[in-house]
Structure formats: structure tokens, C-alpha cells
Design a protein that fits this description.
The chain is an alpha/beta fold. It is built from 16 helices and 12 strands. It has 4 domains: 129 residues, NusB-like (N-utilizing Substance Protein B Homolog, Chain A), CATH 1.10.940.10; 35 residues, no CATH class; 62 residues, Alpha-Beta Plaits (2-Layer Sandwich); 207 residues, Vaccinia Virus protein VP39 (Rossmann fold, 3-Layer(aba) Sandwich), CATH 3.40.50.150.
């Protein structure tokens, strides 16, 4: 069906309004919308996805541009007009394949359709001014009012408070590198099941490289031999080896958790916040169907997702349980060889994959998350056998949830840090904090997400 039947830009505006109104995960809303319009051709669905994601990702920068040319600031606008201007400005500024005239004219036409005909002159004037002046937009000056933090906030559409925090923690160069990385196209990372033989793995890689008429680019990750990146995938469920459970989607930074844990055969592993199950399944694969892995999560839906992965990956030594990690489980006390505590966190290391994190997170959330982390750790640490291992990890780069929590664990629980130098890939062995029992990977280092891993032994 053509655009005469479905106005693609109308669909996009509705997505933007829904995300702003509901504060739901934008990935969920975009996926549901694309499922609803599954009869559209691939190019049309790609236009909806790219324009919606790009607009949502750059709210702050787009508002800055719009406010230069509008007497009414975006926060005072009707939600429809705000969404319409953001979407159209994104096309003008960042989509070379879309003529400026098309972006402007389609926006004016939508004003009629949504009964905002009286504002079509305003929309037309703002967008035409942006189109005419886009090469001469006056961006913030690093040395001007607001300084580096304001400049980074506008240029990379990151809330000002996050920019200030990262500048203080990491300095300008590292902060800008992280922000740039979030806008880079990300491949899909997969972990090849280590229970497969070398020959089986080689044959699987060959099959994947030939899939989709050879359009998929597959590359081995530099850190881990069983980690591969896929570029050019559409629906991964139809790729060779997925249904058979020969691989699972997982970022290399997350795979490092099991390497650091140094899993051995016949151990008892407990993952207290396991969804979607990648780390628990990795531990199960390391034990080659020996021992037992308990994969727990508070959410029934997440447990169902873990169970689906467990069945697909044929992990016979994994038990999935719906369980609240803040509730004490007496039967686990002193029974666990390795305890995975990949706890709820701010997610600041994975903004590139989930951009709505940066808009929904508030400064006060960081402290409340730390309190939740402490509550869970106080509850679960006694599950570890004397001499057993606790691995604390997050997908954030916030020092309060990471380095400060390492000190808290050491000072408040009967746990001592373990030198993790022997357990990390060669490329990481230069990192000085390894001997202190932890590593912070910043977004973009080795192409991975931002991730934090620390290791302790129960005294």
C-alpha cells in the first residue's frame, strides 16, 4: 500500500506524542506501531523507524533549533504542534534524502488533518526559516554562557545535569567520546554457544555470512572469541542457528561478567536479577550442563522471556524462578558458589540502545537506585558459601552506583575484592583497577556498551 492510504508522517507524529505522553519505552511503542503497519513495504517501515527514533533521540537539540525561530517556546506549544515541528526539523537537519520542501509541506498538510489549520502559517514560517538558515545556525559556544556542559547538552541532546556529572567524573574528552558513541549505528552482538565444537562454530559463522542473500556482515569481536557482531540483520529469529539455540543476543560487556566470575563445572550459580537471561545462560554453558543455575526475576513476563531463551538454548541445568530479590530466601543461605548481582541501575551506559533513559531519568533517581542496590545486597550476600564469589555489575557509568558501591560492599558485608586481572581478555589487562577487583568500561571502549563489573570473595 502507498502513502495515499497511510500517511507515514502522521504515524511518526503519533509515535512521538505517545512516547512523550506515556513515558513508555520508545522501543516498545515503535515496535507495536510497526507491527500494526506490517503490511507496509520495507522502505516505508524503515522511514517510520528512522525518523521516529532520530526525532526522539534528539529532542533537546531539536528544541534548541526550533526555539531560535519561534516566539512560542516548545514547552508552551500544543503537544501535536511540538511533535510536528520536532519531526519536521529532524528531517530538515539530519535526513539528506528528504527534500526540505517535502518536510515543510507535509507538516502544513498535517495541520489541516489534525484541525490545527489556524497554526499552519506559524508551522510553515518556522520550518521555512530553519530550512533557509540551517547552515548558519548559531550553536552554543563552549567558552560562552553555560560553558562546556551546555554545549555538550545541546550538541548531543543530553540532559544538562548528566553532562555536568560526567564532566566532573570523566573530563571533557572522555565525556564527548561517550556522547558521540551513542549516535553511532550499533551492530547486533551475539554469543556463540561455547558447548559447540570449533567445527560447528565455523560452519555456523559461514551460514550466517550467507544469510539474507549474503547481505549480513559478521565480524569476530576483538575481546572474546565467541562474540560476534552482525550488521544488516532484519529479523534475527529467521537467521541460521537461532531456532536451534546455537547463539543468543548479548553484548560483549555483559559476557565479561561470566569470564570474571570464572565459572567451574558442578557449581551452584544464582542470578538474582537475571532477565533477559544472557549471563545465567552463559554460566550454564560454561558448566556444560553440570551444576545448577537459578535464574530469578521479580517480573512474571521477564521470567517467561528467560524461560523461552532457556528452552531455545537447551540449557538443562537452568531453573527459572519468579522471585523478589529484596525478599530473604533462607534455603539459599550458604549454598551458592557464585552469586550474580546485576542489579537495577540507571542504565547510563546503554543510552545508545535505549535513548529514552536520558529523558526519563532524574538526578534524584540515582540515590534511590543506590538504596535499592544496597537493600538487595544486604538480603542476598549470605547466600554465598564461605570462599564463594559475588559478582556485582551494572550497565551504568555513574560512580555512585559503581565505585562507591564497591567500597560499600567491602565495608558493610563480609566480602573482600578479588584481583580480576587473570580473568579478563589481554586487551583489558592494562586497566589499573583490575587488581582492586573491578573494571569500568565506558561506552565505546572496544565497541561495547558502558558496563561495570566487580568481584568479591566471601571471607
Amino acid at each position: 500500500m502507498g502513502e495515499q492510504v497511510v500517511n507515514l508522517r502522521e504515524v511518526i507524529v503519533k509515535i512521538i506524542m505517545e512516547v512523550e505522553k506515556s513515558k513508555s519505552h520508545q522501543q516498545f511503542i515503535i515496535k507495536n506501531t510497526l507491527d500494526q503497519y506490517d503490511y507496509l513495504d520495507t522502505q516505508q517501515k524503515a522511514f517510520i523507524k528512522r525518523t521516529a527514533e532520530g526525532t526522539l533521540e534528539r529532542f533537546i537539540q531539536l528544541d534548541y533549533i526550533i526555539n531560535l525561530y519561534s516566539n512560542t517556546k516548545t514547552e508552551k506549544m500544543e503537544p501535536f504542534i511540538r511533535a510536528l515541528l520536532r519531526m519536521s526539523t529532524y528531517q530538515i537537519m539530519f535526513m539528506k534524502g528528504v527534500p526540505d520542501s517535502a518536510a515543510v509541506n507535509e507538516a502544513v498538510n498535517l495541520c489541516h488533518k489534525f484541525r490545527f489549520a489556524d497554526l499552519k502559517g506559524f508551522v510553515n514560517a518556522v520550518l521555512r526559516n530553519i530550512a533557509r538558515s540551517k547552515a548558519e545556525i548559531e550553536w552554543p559556544d563552549k567558552s560562552g554562557e553555560g560553558g562546556e556542559s551546555y554545549y555538550l547538552s545541546i550538541m548531543y541532546s543530553m540532559p544538562l545535569w548528566i553532562c555536568k556529572m560526567w564532566l566532573e567524573d570523566y573530563g571533557y574528552e572522555k565525556t564527548e567520546k561517550m556522547l558521540k558513541f551513542f549516535y553511532k549505528p550499533r551492530p547486533t552482538y551475539i554469543r556463540i554457544d561455547e558447548r559447540m565444537s570449533l567445527q560447528e562454530s565455523v560452519e555456523l559463522i559461514e551460514e550466517l555470512s550467507k544469510a539474507n542473500d549474503g547481505t549480513i556482515k559478521i565480524s569476530e569481536n576483538s575481546l572474546l572469541s565467541y562474540a560476534y557482531s552482525l550488521v544488516g540483520t532484519d529479523n534475527i529469529r529467521y537467521l541460521p542457528g537461532f531456532k536451534e539455540g546455537h547463539w543468543i543476543v548479548q553484548d560483549p560487556s555483559s559476557m565479561l561478567v561470566t569470564e570474571v566470575a570464572d565459572i567451574q563445572h558442578d557449581q551452584i550459580i544464582l542470578d538474582v536479577c537475571a532477565a533477559p537471561g544472557g549471563k545465567a545462560l552463559h554460566a550454564a554453558a560454561k558448566m556444560e550442563n553440570t551444576g545448577k543455575v537459578y535464574a530469578r526475576d521479580i517480573s512474571m513476563n521477564k521470567c517467561k522471556r528467560i524461560s523461552e531463551n532457556v528452552r531455545r538454548m537447551k540449557a538443562e541445568n537452568v531453573v527459572v524462578e519468579q522471585f523478589d530479590a529484596t525478599v530473604f530466601d533462607e534455603k539459599m543461605v550458604g549454598n551458592v558458589d557464585v552469586l550474580y548481582c546485576d542489579l537495577p541501575c540507571s542504565g547510563l551506559g546503554i543510552i545508545g540502545r535505549k535513548p529514552d533513559i536520558k529523558y526519563n531519568l532524574k538526578p534524584g533517581d540515582l540515590k534511590s537506585l543506590q538504596e535499592t542496590q544496597k537493600k538487595i545486597l544486604k538480603t542476598v550476600w549470605t547466600y554465598v558459601k564461605p570462599g564463594g564469589i559475588l559478582v556485582y555489575s551494572t550497565c551504568t557509568v555513574n560512580k555512585g552506583e559503581n565505585e562507591e558501591m564497591v567500597k560499600w560492599i567491602e565495608n558493610n558485608l563480609h566480602m573482600s575484592p578479588v584481583d580480576i586481572t587473570p580473568n579478563v581478555p589481554e586487551q583489558l589487562k592494562h586497566i589499573p583497577t583490575l587488581v582492586d577487583g573491578y573494571v569500568q568500561l565506558l561506552p565505546g571502549q572496544f565497541g561495547t556498551d558502558g558496563f561495570f563489573i566487580s568481584k568479591f570473595v566471601r571471607e
